[in-house]
UniProtKB/TrEMBL annotation:
<dbReference type="Pfam" id="PF02770">
    <property type="entry name" value="Acyl-CoA_dh_M"/>
</dbReference>
<feature type="region of interest" description="Disordered">
    <location>
        <begin position="51"/>
        <end position="77"/>
    </location>
</feature>
<dbReference type="InterPro" id="IPR009075">
    <property type="entry name" value="AcylCo_DH/oxidase_C"/>
</dbReference>
<dbReference type="GO" id="GO:0003995">
    <property type="term" value="F:acyl-CoA dehydrogenase activity"/>
</dbReference>
<feature type="domain" description="Acyl-CoA dehydrogenase/oxidase C-terminal">
    <location>
        <begin position="243"/>
        <end position="389"/>
    </location>
</feature>
<keyword id="KW-0560">Oxidoreductase</keyword>
<feature type="compositionally biased region" description="Basic and acidic residues">
    <location>
        <begin position="51"/>
        <end position="62"/>
    </location>
</feature>
<keyword id="KW-0274">FAD</keyword>
<keyword id="KW-0285">Flavoprotein</keyword>
<protein>
    <submittedName>
        <fullName>Acyl-CoA dehydrogenase</fullName>
    </submittedName>
</protein>
<dbReference type="InterPro" id="IPR036250">
    <property type="entry name" value="AcylCo_DH-like_C"/>
</dbReference>
<dbReference type="InterPro" id="IPR046373">
    <property type="entry name" value="Acyl-CoA_Oxase/DH_mid-dom_sf"/>
</dbReference>
<dbReference type="InterPro" id="IPR009100">
    <property type="entry name" value="AcylCoA_DH/oxidase_NM_dom_sf"/>
</dbReference>
<dbReference type="GO" id="GO:0050660">
    <property type="term" value="F:flavin adenine dinucleotide binding"/>
</dbReference>
<comment type="similarity">
    <text>Belongs to the acyl-CoA dehydrogenase family.</text>
</comment>
<dbReference type="InterPro" id="IPR037069">
    <property type="entry name" value="AcylCoA_DH/ox_N_sf"/>
</dbReference>
<dbReference type="InterPro" id="IPR006091">
    <property type="entry name" value="Acyl-CoA_Oxase/DH_mid-dom"/>
</dbReference>
């Protein structure tokens, strides 16, 4: 049976619109904000307004599609994937800086009730998970949320919060009962103007310098109980599957960022090879061609495999199919591949690749975070092993 791997026509406008933003807004200012770390890219304000309008139209369109009896649905997850891919071709850090498009928004979309989706539809939400005491082990959350009448009091410190100083809200992972373990970990939507919420500092980073990364402290930060996303019940059977569902949605998007950046580097690598007189001939065996061409074909095939993994993960999410393994597969494959591609492009570019005359060295620096955040390579492989072998986190650590 033939498989059609072309994107549905309904996404043509998304591809065109987001690629134009990447080409005409992101690329021209990419180096400027790489050098001006922590300076807010004001050029994105208008883009943020347009993106908000587009999302409202897309939600309406996706809602109409979901109401039909189509056998397969390509909805908001696939659309987010495509947008991330196209705009990351321009600049990953600037994509993460667009007003209204924080990682916390994906968390809200993943686990919020219908009422909460309506309530938080216009917010720009960062996501606060990692703490000074742990890195990739999300179950080790020590930030607490203590019930106090109709509110929760949140106390703790979060690090590596993307858009933490720019977003107007932050989705905070906190435990409502330390004795109940991971089952008591919930996510809360906290306005950044809440008393007791403080941006302690901004990090200086290797890459994605145009995106701010903050340390945020919560000291008796009071939020309404209704700001707890999903159910407040501690379900030991479900553990913290609700908040972890966030990753099933966001990991394919991070993979798409890696794919967009990887494509940019592949295009530049192809140009350099052709300029040097090394033609890429797909009708010949790779081994029968110049060593650099052989390497390019290997990288391109890895890139294609990453894209297909990512498409699969997003399609499953849109069709309400469990995709935890596939989400981790897409993130692991794309994260490893983009670092491989960008490093090779710097190597082939030689002096020009290592200097600031091109964007190659910047892309290599930006690429590394895509193999780290939303779970490192090792964490993804652990999750995949658990799913494939049918093991729990207690069985396989």
């Amino acid at each position: 049976m033939a498989i059609n791997l072309e994107l549905p026509k309904k996404f043509d406008s998304t591809v065109e619109r987001t690629h134009m933003a990447a080409e005409h807004i992101f690329r021209p200012i990419s180096r400027k904000y790489d050098k001006a770390e922590h300076e807010y890219p004001t050029e994105l304000d208008e883009l943020g307004k347009l993106a908000k309008q587009s999302r409202a139209q897309e939600r309406e369109s996706d809602g109409q599609s979901a109401a039909t009896d189509e056998p397969s649905e390509n909805g908001p997850n696939m659309r987010a994937l495509i947008s991330a891919r196209e705009m990351s071709w321009g600049d990953v850090g600037l994509l993460l800086s667009i007003p209204g498009q924080g990682l916390g928004n994906a968390a809200i979309a993943a686990v919020a009730t219908d009422e909460q989706l309506e309530k938080f539809s216009g917010v720009w939400a960062a996501m606060a998970i990692t703490e000074p005491s742990f890195g990739s082990d999300s179950a080790a959350v020590s930030t607490t949320a203590t019930r106090d009448g109709d509110d929760y009091l949140i106390n703790g410190e979060k690090i590596f919060v993307t858009a933490g100083s720019r977003a107007d809200h932050v989705v905070v992972w906190a435990t409502i009962d330390k004795s109940a373990g991971r089952a008591a970990i919930k996510s809360f939507v906290v306005p950044m103007t809440t008393e007791g919420v403080t941006v302690a500092r901004l990090e200086h980073k290797l890459g994605i310098k145009s995106s701010d990364t903050a340390v945020i402290r919560f000291e008796n930060a009071r939020v309404p109980a209704d700001n707890l996303l999903g159910s407040p019940e501690v379900d030991t059977k479900k553990a913290f599957g609700g908040v972890m569902q966030t990753f099933d949605n966001t990991r394919p998007v991070v993979a798409a960022m890696a794919i967009g950046l990887g494509r940019a580097a592949l295009e530049e690598l192809r140009r350099m090879l052709e300029e040097a007189g090394h033609e890429i001939d797909y009708d010949k065996s790779a081994a029968a061609q110049h060593a650099s061409v052989c390497e390019f074909i290997r990288l391109e095939s890895d890139w294609e495999a990453s894209w297909l993994h990512t498409l699969r993960a997003a399609w499953m999410a849109d069709n309400q199919q469990p995709n935890s393994a596939e989400a981790s597969m897409s993130k692991a494959k794309a994260g490893r591949t983009v670092t491989d591609i960008t490093n090779k492009a710097v190597e082939v570019g030689a002096t020009a690749g290592f200097s600031e005359t091109m964007l190659l060295e910047k892309w290599a620096r930006d690429a590394k975070i895509l193999d780290i955040f939303e779970g490192t390579q090792q964490i993804q492989q652990l999750i995949i092993a658990r799913r494939v072998l049918g093991k729990s986190s207690a069985d396989l650590t």
